[in-house]
C-alpha cells in the first residue's frame, strides 16, 4: 500500500496544482463526449425525422416507381391495391400520388413534383390538415426551403402545369396555404403538396397512387401484385450510408479531439514529471527502487485522470444532460448539409461513448505518465539529482 | 568497536567521457573509514569529492577498483540491492536540501521509514524524536517552502538520520547557509554522531565545516593528497 499512499499524499500535497491539472484534463472528457454526442444526435434526428415525415413504417411502391429515375414517373401510378384498402381506411396507411409538373413562380419556371396526399392523413408528420383549410381553387403546401427558393409565401397564387394520364397539358393557379418548416429536405425541395383527390381529378387518375406509406409500426400485408414493398431499413439505407460516410469524418474528428487531448495531457504530465526529475533523483537516493518510482508517478498520473473523470462527471453530467434536454441551437443554413437536421440538435450519448472516452483518456494519462518517468528512472540517481533530462 | 571498517575503497577509479577526451575524477583512491568517524573529504571544486561520496553512497559506480560499504561490494549491487542499501544503511544530506516540496516536514522525515515498512506508531515516535533532536518538532506540519534555509537543512538531517543509519553522507551541507546556520547544523551533526554512533562523511570545502571534522581527507585532482586526523 506504499505506492497508493504516497501517490495520494503527492496529489493532496500539490493542492491547487492538482486541481488545476485535473480541471484541464476534465475538459477533454466533456468536450469529446459533447461533440461526439452532437454528431450522434444529428444522425439519430436524421433517421427519426425521415421516418416520421417521409418513410413511415415502410412503403409500397408502384412497380414502375423509381425515385432515382424521373423517366419512370409518368407511368408510376396505379389503383391502390385492394389488399391495402383496409389499412388506408383505418388510417394506418396513406396513398401518395406523385406527378411531375412545372411551377411558374414570379415569372420563372421550376420543375417540381406534385404530391397528392389526403389532408386528413395521420400516417406522416406533415401538416397536411392545412390543405383542407385552403380557400383557393387548388390549395398547396410547400416547405420553407421551397418557399425561400421561389419567393412564395402563404396566400400567394402560383401557376402549376402538369400532364394528365393521357399526356395532355393542363394548368391551374395554386394558392399557397402554408409554408411548413421541416427538417426533411426530401419533402421540401422542389415539392408541392396538394390534396390527393384534387390531384387524382386533375390527372384523371381516380383512386390511383404512386406509393402507399404505412404508419410507423404497421406490419406490411405481404406481397401485393404490381407493387413492391420497401421496408424502413431499405428506405433508410441512403441516410445510413450518408451517416456512415459522415461517421468516418466523425471518427476522424473524434480521433483528432482525442489526439489534441492527448497532446495536452502529454504536455502537462511530461512537463510535470520532467520538472520533478530532481525529486525522482531524491527518491532514488533515499532508497526507492526504480520500479517503485515508476509505479508511483504512473499511479499519480492515473489518479489525475480519475480525479479529472470525477470532476468531469460533477459538472459534465448536468451540463450534458441539460444540453440533451434543451438541445443545441444550430446556426442558420445547416439545412443545406444534406441531412434532415433541425434547428436544434439534441445530443445523444451512448454508454460506449462515455465509457470509451473515459477509458481512453485514463489510459492516455497513465501511459504519458509512465513513459517519461521510466525514462528518468533509468538515469543514474546522480544524473537525476542534477536535474539531467536524458 | 571504533575500528570497525564501514567504508573500504581500493584502487578506486572513476572516469568520465567528455566527447573525445576522458576526465579522471578519481584516480586510484585507497581509503578506509571506520564506524562513528566524523570525516570530511575536502578539496577544491572538481577534485572528485562528490564523486567519491556518490560512489560510497551507491548512487554511482566506479570505473574500476572496488568499494565495500558495510562489507558489501557496492560495485556488484543491482539497482534494487543498491536502493535497499541506501534505504536501510545510508543517510544523505544534500547541498540543496532536496526536500520533497509537497510533503510536510513530518512527511519528509517519515519517508525513509515508509520505504522500510516501519509500522505507524513506531514511525511516529521515531519521526517526532528526530525532529526533537534537530529542534523542529514544532514545525512538523510546515511545508518546506515555509522554512528558512537552516531549518530546511535540519529537516534534511532529520530525514537522513531518522532511520538510524550506519553512515551519513553530506555533500556540501552548509553551502547554502549563512555562518550562524552552518555552525548550528554542524553542532547538530556532531551531537548526532556522538549519540547515534553513526559515521558522518562530508564533502566540503567550507572552512566552517572543516573546523568540526575529526578527520580530514584532502583530494586533489582525484587523488588523496593528505589524510589527517584532527
Molecular structure report:
The complex is a heterodimer of chains A (390) and B (230). By secondary structure, chain A is α+β, with helices and mostly antiparallel strands. Chain A has twelve helices and 13 strands. With 230 residues, chain B is of the alpha/beta class. Chain B contains seven helices and ten strands. In chain B, the strands form two sheets. Chain B has a six-stranded mixed beta sheet, with helices on both faces. The two termini of chain B are 20 Å apart.
Query: How much of the polypeptide of chain A forms β-strand, as a percent range?
Result: 15-25%
Q: Rg of chain B from C-alpha positions?
A: 17 Å
The sequence of SSEs of chain A as H and E is HHEEHEEHEHEEEHEEEHHHHEEHH
Q: Most extensive interface: pair and counts?
A: A-B, 25 and 29 residues
Anisotropy-based shape of chain A: elongated
Sheet-strand content of chain B, in percent, reads 25-35%
Structural class of chain A: alpha+beta
Uncertain segments of chain A: none
Poorly predicted runs of chain B are none
Order of helices and strands of chain B: EEEHEEHEHHHEHEHEE
Distance between the termini of chain B: 20 Å
Mean pLDDT of chain A: 87
For the largest beta-sheet of chain A, the strand count, sense and barrel status come to: 9 strands, mixed
How is the topology of this model organized?
The complex is a heterodimer of chains A (390) and B (230).
Chain A: H1 2-14, H2 16-55, E1 59-62, E2 78-79, H3 82-89, E3 93-104, E4 110-117, H4 129-132, E5 138-143, H5 144-150, E6 157-163, E7 169-180, E8 191-195, H6 196-203, E9 208-209, E10 211-214, E11 227-230, H7 232-235, H8 237-275, H9 277-285, H10 290-326, E12 328-329, E13 344-345, H11 351-377, H12 381-385
Helix pairs in contact in A: 1-10, 2-8, 2-10, 2-11, 8-11, 10-11
Chain B: E1 5-18, E2 21-34, E3 38-42, H1 49-56, E4 64-69, E5 72-73, H2 79-89, E6 90-93, H3 105-116, H4 120-133, H5 149-161, E7 167-171, H6 179-196, E8 199-204, H7 207-210, E9 215-220, E10 223-229
Helix pairs in contact in B: 3-4, 3-5, 4-5, 5-6
